[in-house]
């Protein structure tokens, strides 16, 4: 049987709580589709840091190279470990170490789950630059703790980095019916980095005459996501801008318990990493009530990346069916079901969808 090797990093807080149930849904769908997933569990995260002084082992990137994909929950335990340590030394270390330069985040309202807006047609994808920009990590602090203290955080925009993310976004826009690309800029205030970003967008755009490119200042784009979400299709943004816009996107979807994120090395030199957009949610951690839908959506993106579109489709259809059904709702969606009950509902929908697809193919005269 075809087997994929998956590095499982549950991380902290609700990351640990959603990964088991989400994995159960994924394993069920894999079995239905005739392949299996062979997981190795890595205990990295804030507990590991407190015990060992590091977020992950020194040879972590070397060891995980052998895997087909990484499936991550969430990291962060702000009461015990500073967020810049937990995020930079694990998540960002993997993204940058494996040059996962695309962070793909669909923002789609599922039928049956009301978002906060009147508009029901929200179907965008954010292509976030994931390897440099504002999160490059350059800068420093000087005269720390004195009245003359200075802190710098330098954003880095390279021609290679900007060209490749824009080209990916244009390709994605070309593959979608509306063929529209919104580029998030701030060239009125950032006269070096964002003017460069805009120039490269126009240059690459010449290769894609069929795609309509519009540049929006990121603040106006944030407003547009709320006032005119139906006018947005593919969004391309720098690391920081994309980070902010996609939490807004999650809110538009009705809950941060829904959106998923794929950290991709499109050239497949390194494994890609799949995770929910949300963090470790300390406010609800330990209660068993976190919504596992984002983690399952991330699993669907992982299956797409591994070349298992049938499994990806069943996972997404199961999410849609539970959303449409309206019976099973975790607390973030206004209900009382817990993490396990939501995962059980997704498994049961997945089985039904698979059985129905077999009945259709059995009656297909071809
Ligand atoms: P968060 O995403 O953890 O939580 C924001 C709000 O959304 C909270 O009220 C939380 O209860 C709710 N929420 C999030 N996911 C949910 C789910 N699946 N089901 C139900 N409710 C959900 O963001 P926050 O509070 O800013 O960060 C908490 C920690 O997570 C910090 O340490 C932060 O650095 C880390 N973080 C890690 C990320 C990652 O590992 N990819 C991403 C974002 C934050
Ligand atoms: Mg974020």
Structure write-up:
With 366 residues, the chain is α/β, with parallel strands linked by helices. The chain has 2 domains: 1-102 and 255-366, Isopropylmalate Dehydrogenase, CATH 3.40.718.10; 116-252, Isopropylmalate Dehydrogenase. The chain is 43% helix and 22% strand. It has helices at residues 14-33, 46-52, 60-64, 83-97, 159-175, 193-205, 218-227, 239-252, 293-305, 309-325, 339-363, and strands spanning 2-11, 35-41, 69-74, 102-108, 123-129, 133-142, 150-156, 180-185, 212-217, 234-237, 260-264, 272-276. The chain has a 10-stranded mixed beta sheet with strand order 2-1-3-12-11-4-5-10-8-9, sandwiched between helices. A two-stranded antiparallel ribbon has the order 6-7. A hairpin with a 7-residue loop joins strand 6 (133-142) and strand 7 (150-156). Helix 7 packs parallel to helix 8 (239-252). The relative contact order is 0.16. 1,4-dihydronicotinamide adenine dinucleotide binds next to helix 4.
């Amino acid at each position: 049987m075809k087997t994929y090797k998956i590095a499982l990093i549950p991380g902290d807080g609700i990351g640990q709580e959603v990964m088991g149930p989400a994995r159960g849904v994924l394993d069920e769908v894999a079995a239905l589709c005739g392949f299996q997933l062979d997981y190795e569990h890595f205990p990295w995260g804030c507990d590991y840091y407190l015990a060992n002084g590091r977020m992950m082992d020194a040879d972590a990137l070397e060891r995980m190279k052998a895997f087909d994909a990484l499936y991550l929950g969430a990291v962060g335990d702000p009461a015990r470990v500073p967020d810049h340590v937990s995020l930079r030394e694990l998540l960002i270390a993997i993204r940058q170490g494996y040059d996962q330069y695309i962070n793909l985040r669909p923002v789609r309202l599922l039928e049956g789950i009301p978002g906060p807006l009147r508009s029901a047609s929200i179907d965008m994808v954010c292509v976030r630059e994931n390897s440099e920009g504002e999160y490059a990590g350059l800068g420093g602090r000087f005269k720390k703790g004195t009245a003359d203290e200075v802190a710098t955080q330098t954003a880095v925009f390279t021609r290679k980095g900007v060209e490749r993310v824009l080209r990916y976004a244009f390709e994605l826009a070309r593959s979608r019916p509306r063929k529209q690309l919104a580029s998030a800029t701030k060239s009125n205030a950032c006269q070096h980095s964002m003017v460069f970003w805009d120039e490269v967008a126009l240059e690459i755009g010449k290769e894609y005459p069929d795609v309509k490119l519009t540049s929006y200042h990121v603040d106006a784009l944030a407003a547009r996501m709320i006032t005119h979400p139906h006018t947005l299709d593919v969004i391309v943004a720098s690391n920081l801008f994309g980070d902010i816009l996609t939490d807004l996107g999650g809110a538009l979807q009705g809950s941060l318990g829904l959106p998923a994120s794929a950290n991709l090395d499109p050239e497949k030199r390194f494994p890609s990493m799949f995770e929910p957009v949300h963090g470790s949610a300390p406010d609800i951690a330990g209660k068993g009530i976190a919504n596992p839908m984002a983690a399952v959506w991330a699993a669907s993106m992982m299956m797409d990346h591994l070349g298992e579109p049938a499994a990806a489709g069943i996972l997404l259809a199961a999410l849609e069916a539970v959303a449409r059904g309206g019976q099973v709702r975790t607390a973030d969606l206004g209900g009382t079901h817990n993490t396990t009950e939501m995962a059980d509902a997704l498994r049961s929908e997945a089985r039904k969808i698979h059985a129905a697809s077999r009945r259709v193919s059995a009656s297909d005269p071809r």
